[in-house]
Amino acid sequence: MKFTFSSAANLSIVKKPALCLVLVYLSPGLPSARITFIDLVYHLRLIAYNKHMAKRDNDLEFSVNAAFDEARAVVDKVPLYLVNGSLGAGKTSVLEFLLQQSDYKGSRVIENEYANENIDGYRLEGLAEMVTTLAGDCVCCSSKHALTRMLLDFCRNSPAPVFIEATGVARTMSLVEKLINAQIFNKYELMQSFYVIDAYEILHGIEPAHEVELQAADVILVTKEDLLNNNERAEYGIKLSALPYAKVLSAPHGRFDLSKLTTPSGLLAFFDTYDGELVVPDNPTYAVLDISGMKIAAATLEKIWPELFDTYKLRRMKGCFIDDNGVRHHLEATKNQIQIANSAAEEPAKIVLIGERADEITREVLSAQLMMFE
Predict the structure, then answer these.
(1) Lower CB density within 10 Å: C or N end of the chain?
(2) Cα(337)–Cα(332) distance, rounded to whole angstroms?
(3) If 0-12 CB within 10 Å is exposed, 13-18 middle and 19+ buried, where does residue 342 land?
C-alpha cells in the first residue's frame, strides 16, 4: 500500500497526527523517513499558525469565557509591570524602550485605549511576543472580565513578563484594587509601577487627580523636557526639584537609566496603607476621524491646534495625516504642545481626539476649521 502526501488534499491530514499514525500502522512498507517528514510538516504548520495568531488582537477571544485551568498555570509567578501616565505624556515611547531590552524579551503587552480604536499599536509590532488591545473605555473601571481573563491566559502559557499600558484617564489605585479582587497577584508578582508625566505639567502645575498617581508610582518618568524653551527651564528646574517624590527620572523620548530601577514594586504596600479615597476616573468623550483622502498642511494644523483645544476642551489629539505632496505625518498634541514628525507607512490616516466635547468634532467640522486657517 502506498500513500502520497504531496498534494494539498492529502497534506490536510497532516493536521491530524492520530490519523497519520493510523496510516503508518496500516502501511508496513512505508519508509520510516516518511514518518519524520510528516511529523516535521505538522510541527512546522503548528508553529507557523501559533506565530500568526500571536500577533492578532483577538487571539484571546476563544478563552474569555473558558474556565481557568489551575493545573496548566506556570509554577513561578509571572513578572507584571504597570505603565500609566497622563494623556500624551509618552507612555508608548517608554514601553517601546523597555521592550527593546534583553530582560523583557518575549514580553506580552495589554494596551488600553480610551478611544475605540488603537491607531498606534503598530509601534510595538515586532517588539513584543503578543500585543492585545482593550479599546473603547478605561481599563480600571470596565472590561474587568476581559482583563483578568487575558492575564490568567498569559500566566498559564508562559512565564515571560507582562506589561499593562493604561489609558491616560486610568487611575492606578483603582486598577490595583481590581487586580487584587480578582486574585491576580496569586499568579503575578508586581515588579514595577511607572508613571509618565511630561515636563509641561510639572511647569504649569500637576493636576490634583495625578497627585496620588505620583505618590503610588515606584518610578516617575519625566518626558519632553527638550521642548521647554530657555525662559521656561529655570522655573521648571525649581518646580522639579521641589517634587516630594523619591524617584524621579528624566526620560527623553521614553529612554531612561534602567540601573535606577529597584524591584519588586512597593505599590501594593502603598495600597495597603493608603487611607484616602480612590479617585474616580473622569470620562471625557472621544472621536476617531478617518481622514484618508484629505490633504492637510502641517502648518495649518499647527494654527488650528490651540483653537480646537480651547473650543472643544480637548486634552489629547494624535494620529496620522497626509499633506498635499502625499507625505504622511504623525501628530501628537496636548494642550501645552504639538509635535509633528514623519509617519510610518503602515500608520492609518486617522486622528483621535479626547476631551470634554471631543465627540462633537466630525470630519466635516475638522474640514471647516482647516479651511478657516488655510
Answers:
(1) N
(2) 8
(3) exposed
CB within 8 Å of 192: residues ≥ 6 apart:
81, 82, 218, 219, 261, 263, 264, 265
**Res 294 pLDDT > 90:** yes
Q: How far is CA 21 from the centre of its chain?
A: 44
pLDDT at 144: 58
| Alpha carbons 165 and 162: distance in angstroms, whole number | 10
Query: Of 293, 311, 304, 315, which is closest to residue 368 (Cα–Cα)?
Result: 304
CB 191 within 8 A of CB 83: no
Sort strands 219-223 and 248-250 into parallel, antiparallel or unpaired. parallel
Q: pLDDT per residue over 81-130, tens digit each?
A: 999 998 889 999 999 999 999 999 999 999 987 766 777 777 888 899 99
Q: Is residue 87 a contact partner of residue 199, using CB atoms and an 8 Å limit?
A: no
Q: CA angle, corner 200, sides to 198 and 203, nearest 5?
A: 125
What the block records as the C-alpha cell of 199 is: 515636563
Q: What are the grid coordinates assigned to 121, written together? A: 499599536
Distance (Å, whole) CA 28 – CA 24: 7
Q: How far apart, in whole angstroms, are the C-alpha atoms of residue 265 and residue 276?
A: 20
SS3 109: strand
Does the pTM surpass 0.90? The reply is: no
Sign of CA dihedral 147, 88, 347, 356: positive
C-alpha to C-alpha distance for 122 and 57, rounded to whole angstroms: 11
248-282 tens-digit pLDDT: 999 999 999 999 998 899 999 999 988 877 665 66
Mean pLDDT in residue range 151-170? 89
How many angstroms separate the CA atoms of 120 and 341, rounded? 14
Query: Residue 138 and residue 212: Cα distance in Å, rounded?
Result: 18
Residue 254: which of 197, 334, 172 has the closest Cα?
197
- Say how far apart CA 188 and CA 136 lie, in whole Å: 26
Which domains, and CATH codes, for the chain? 8-53 (no CATH), 61-273 (3.40.50.300), 285-373 (3.30.1220.10)
Residues 139 and 164 sit within 8 Å (Cβ to Cβ): yes
Closest CA to 284 of 91, 138, 140: 138
